[in-house]
Amino acid sequence: MKQNKKTILTIVSIISLIGFIVFLILVVNKYNFKMDKFNETLMNGRNSYLNVIFRILTYFGSSVLLFASAILMLIFVKNKKVGFGLLGGLAGASLLNLLIKYTVRRPRPTMPMVIKEIGYSFPSAHAMLSFVFFGLLIYFVLKNINKKWLKISLTVLFSLIVIIVGVSRIYLGVHFTSDIIAGYLLGLPVVCITILSLDAIKKS
Questions:
Q1: Which residue among 34, 87, 128, 153 has the highest number of C-beta atoms inside a 10 angstrom radius?
Q2: Where residue 132 sits, what CATH number does that domain have?
């Protein structure tokens, strides 16, 4: 069973990385993604109420909030594997994201932004970090919680948060839709590698 888990996670990581590399090549070659038209759709639906809501929702993908949450879990959650896993995953994802951002140097969208953001656009750090943090939380929930209804509820909740964070970045005008998808694609291998690393540490 453990070998099957390792094989599945490895295959998922490879497929996701291939998907990300395709996005990377297209972005470097300044490909016009049709999905990026979704930016215009969301921008046309802006209003003052949604602006406030999405300003709040986007903080669920903030590196400050996610790292602070991971540290608190390390301190207060009895199973230290949870805190260490979250911190390790976030740290790896952050470094990888910065490396790619400053290598590719894709400018942010030119449409009006609801909030100010600096730096480059590809891939979205909010999308990637939220995927890693909540993806790992889902793994820990499925692994450690016995009540089926609670497992399902938390899995759905955490999945929705990841999606909402991505949508918020597009709505606010700080990322292309392709940045968000690429962030998710790059976040998935980080989740898988973190899980495999935690399993390896347990064996040693």
A1: 128
A2: 1.20.144
Residue found by looking up tokens 């949450």 in the block? 69
Over its C-alpha atoms, the chain yields an Rg (Å, rounded) of: 17
Number of domains, the chain: 1
SS3 content of the chain, % helix, strand, coil (to 5): 80, 0, 20
Q: What distance, in Å, lies between the first and last C-alpha atoms of the chain?
A: 18
CA distance 156 to 67: 22
Three-state DSSP class for residue 49: helix
Q: 111 is in which domain, residue-wise?
A: 2-203
- Report the distance separating Cα 125 and Cα 17, nearest Å: 16
Residues 160-178: b if buried by 16+ CB within 10 A, e if exposed: ebbebbbbbbbbbbbbbbb
Q: Which residues, other chains included, contact 20 with Cβ-Cβ below 8 Å and sequence gap of 6+?
A: 123, 182, 185, 186, 189
Residue by residue, pLDDT tens for the chain (204 residues) are: 567 889 999 999 999 999 999 999 999 999 999 999 999 898 888 999 999 999 999 999 999 999 999 999 999 988 888 999 999 999 999 999 999 999 999 999 988 889 988 899 999 999 999 999 999 999 999 999 999 999 999 999 999 999 999 999 999 999 999 999 999 999 999 999 999 999 888 665
